[in-house]
Amino acid sequence: MKPARRNFLKSLALASGSLPLAAGWREVLAASTGYPRLVHGPMPGAVGPREIQLWMRASGQYPVSVRYGRQSDLSDAQLSEPVSVGPEDDYVARIHLANLQPDTTYFYRPWVNGKPAKYLDNVPPFRFRTAPTGPSRFRLGFGSCARWQEYPRQPIWNALERWEPDLFCWLGDNIYADTVEPGIMSDLYKIQRAVPEYQHFGNRVPQLAIWDDHDYGLNNSDRDNPMREDSLALFKRYWANPAYGTEQTPGIFFQYHYGGVDFFFLDNRYHRDPNEQPDGPEKSQLGAGQLAWLKAGLKASTAPFKLLISGGGWSHNPEAFGEDNWASYRHERDSLFNFIRDEDIGGVMLMSGDVHRAEANCIPWSAQGGYDLYEFISSGLAQDTPVPEPIEVPEVRLREPFTGGHNAGLVEFDLTQADPVARFNVINFGGQTAWDEPIVVRASELRNGVSSWRQKVDPEWPSPLRADVKG
Asked: In this model, does residue 15 exceed pLDDT 50?
């Protein structure tokens, strides 16, 4: 018998002899540290040129830190300041590392209770790479809709790992909680975080996230969600984003910059009016505070590309009013697009998930005096992909929707060119691209007065433009 085990049993015997049995058990167990370790993570979150947030969850109320350095053997490593964790935050630690070198690979090991975390002390160190300082070439992965209950095996993560994205964005329905019980929602976050196929990818690639209805509450939930505040608190607990709303306006929205691209991650739930409410100036999906924040950020941005990231799809079909997407918020959507045109804000592209298939679409705002707004869509990471229903028709389809199963989106950015370029394609769970040719968008095409969508349509696609749309 190991000495530690022998001593524990001896203490337990002494305690039970001198105290009432229940009290003795509690006292001895409270003094026993067990095996200090991680039970979830680590996962890199928001990363910048000189800093990163690392998310992890410990097995008890211990101090958590990481030993990190640029050498793979950690011979140059230093130990971060310990972070105390406890039951009030489900033993989650967010470790902030600063004063890092840009565009550099770092290696690290988690420490728990002053020692290397058990079970992770005899495997290769984890690693992450800091962001570049200026315009660069990088690969963004994204996806939505991971239904663990139906798909506990999720091969899409192995496929994504082969493509080695520099950053990954979760676009909502990251869990299918479908509950108003905070404990159940918390459980599902932890279950999804522990999916075996996800482990290596999630340990290495920086992860950012927004939510949609199924990880906010019940299906199609809006601002009347009875667990609205609990959902927000849990989201903050289990993701390591750079921010969550503003001091004046709560929510999960935030702005992020990487490699020369500005990302605007939007909250389409916390302030959302009901889908069925009549459309007009008083109806909002984003809420006044978030919308003002977004407009100010767009006006201030000088990035060649500005991605507006929403859980629900941006394309509009009059027949789809009342559906759970921007089709039910046409006034707010069009007002935002007109603002982009009127303020001469170039470089805007759109991204979304939710629809259980992958799409490449366009909203031809060049017909309204602006420029064509391209929408990149991927869904689901672990979800069925049925054929679209008749009402699910965007303004312009550039490619045949991918309904071949689990998928993820990839966008290759090259900001080093004189005319920066973005290339979008989708991969299946085997790692193969869905379309023979990617959607290629150049910054020069995202300027008022430029119409470019016709050159990007698959020539074999019969009817790319919906009949009721000018383009």
From this structure: no
DSSP character at residue 147:
-
Backbone angles phi, psi at 236, to 5 degrees: -60, -35
Please give the structure tokens belonging to residue 318. Answer: 């009059």
Sequence-separated (6 or more) residues with CB below 8 Å from residue 217? 177, 178, 179, 180, 225, 226, 227, 228, 231, 269
Q: What is the mean pLDDT of residues 206-219?
A: 98
Cβ-based burial of 331 (10 A; exposed 0-12, middle 13-18, buried ≥19): middle
H or E, element range at 159: helix 156-163
The rounded distance, in Å, linking the Cα atoms of 471 and 451 is 8
| Tens-digit pLDDT profile for residues 93-122 | 999 999 999 999 999 999 999 999 999 999
The CA-atom distances, in angstroms, between 310 and each of 57, 167, 209, 423, 439 are 28, 17, 10, 19, 19
> 329-368: per-residue pLDDT in tens?
999 999 999 999 999 999 999 999 999 999 999 999 999 9
The pTM of this model reads: 0.93
- The per-residue pLDDT for 463 is 84
Nearest residue to 171 (alpha-carbon basis) of 214, 222, 234: 214
How would DSSP label each residue in 290-308? Answer: HHHHHHHHHHH---SEEEE
Over pLDDT 70: what percentage of the chain? Answer: 93
Positive or negative torsion for Cα 382, 413, 200, 121: negative
Q: Which of 216, 232, 207, 240 is CA-nearest to residue 92?
A: 240
Cβ atoms within 10 Å of 327's Cβ, excluding its own: 24
d(CA 40, CA 91) in angstroms, rounded, equals 10
| CB contact at 8 A, 189 and 90 | no
For the purposes of burial, counting CB atoms within 10 Å of the CB of 88, is it exposed (0-12), middle (13-18) or buried (19 or more)? exposed
Closest CA to 356 of 52, 85, 145: 145
- What separation in angstroms does the CA of 338 have from each of 60, 251, 334, 347, 452? 52, 25, 6, 14, 18
Q: Is the pLDDT of residue 13 over 60?
A: no
